[in-house]
Amino acid sequence: MKYMLRVRYGIGYSWRLFIGLLVFILSVAMPLEAVEVYEFEEEERPSTSSSQVALDSLPSPIISLLIVPPRDEAVYTLYGHAAIRVQGGIGLADRVYNYGVFDDQAPHFVANFISGRADDYRVAAQYTSDYVYSYTQQGCEVYELVLNLTPQEATKMEELLIENCLPENAYYRYNVVYDNCATRPIAIIEQSINGRLQYPDEDGTYPQVSRRAMLDRCSLRWAWLKLGTDLALGMPADQKVGARDQVFLPLYMLDIMRCTHIIDQEGNKRKLVLDEATYTRTAEPALSAPTPIYLHPGSLASLLLLCVLIVCGLDRKHLRVWRILYGIYFAILGLAGALLFYLSFFSLHPLTNPNLNLLSLHPLHLLLGAPLIFIAPYSRMSYWYHWGNIGLQLVYILLIVFGGLQTPNFAPIAWAIATSIVSFRLIVTRNLKRSGNE
User: Fold this and answer.
1) I want to staple 301 with a disulfide (CB 3.0 to 4.6 A). Which of 35, 338, 344, 414 is the partner?
2) CB burial string 383-421: b at 16+ within 10 A, e below
3) How much of the chain is in helix, strand and coil states, percent to nearest 5?
4) Segment 234-275, tens digit of pLDDT
5) pLDDT tens, 84-104?
6) Distance (Å, whole) CA 321 – CA 325
7) pTM here?
């Protein structure tokens, strides 16, 4: 049986799906790309049965990591990609084992991914020449790190890869941080070696960094992507992690593997990487321009805050049109809050809970705030709702800006200030009406 699936190389596409709804709310469209991948026929797949092949008579394979660095061409290229190359051995071929393959036509694929239940990811084998060409002709360099494995370790690693490719083993539940195309190769190496990996931070000299900072480094030119990431990720994303937890991004994986050693069971130490090679690009990458200042979320948030100040200052006759605008604003904030609430409490995605952004953006704006503005803007319930909203916005700003509990982004801080101003305007109007001084 022959499998033909579409694949987006790298974990960037998956992160795009993860924050895509947030960015959609903010009116940003993100491009997609599909690449066809050839997978070997079942009859081409080598058997590990000792009755069909004498493993001891075959030369041990040469195994490498193939790492593609990120590039600023599109969202799905921002985070790079990693795969395993096997030369020789059981298959007597030159193949790449790619854990970034998925079928986006599978039933409920998008819904499953948003909920963190993406079980349609799998490993697939393809010819190395095809794999490398697919990147170099797009303007990417491919870095090869030849692993310093013993013959027994290399053979075991190839056997594990072949076993992983069996139909009953190929699929796995994708996790943006803990189980993706970069972490799977490292896990296979750890299972194959006669000992353990010594990562460069064990001596205390390798820097720790937060996962949010790692992701931000890959999206410096993509202001809306950074906003979506800062909204979706909660406090756990700001915890600093060591080298082993940094390899989920190929950009960091490349440097970490160069400094990693193998400690065998006898205590002998050797470098993990034996040699390196680089496949140069055959075309210039098509780089995307950075977000222009007039479309930057910070600029638009500042403009929104200015408009809110002007409207609330002009709203002296309490015209219905202003209340409609207030209600729409609260409804939009509530929609964003509903998505954050789902990601934090119902999805299986990591690093989303607790999320302090829910103090400012929450579903109550949609379920209670907006209806009260439309139906009973000056009722007692509305009065106390808006005082509570002002209190939550102040707590949010204090914790984010001054408490340092979660990395701030200017846009949601500006939204919080604007929301407080609208609530205060409605409270003042209610008091004026009740006192007869409107």
Assistant:
1) 414
2) bebbeebbebbeebbebbeeeeebbbbbbbbbbbbbbbb
3) 50, 15, 35
4) 999 999 999 999 999 999 999 999 999 999 999 999 999 999
5) 999 998 867 899 999 999 877
6) 6
7) 0.83
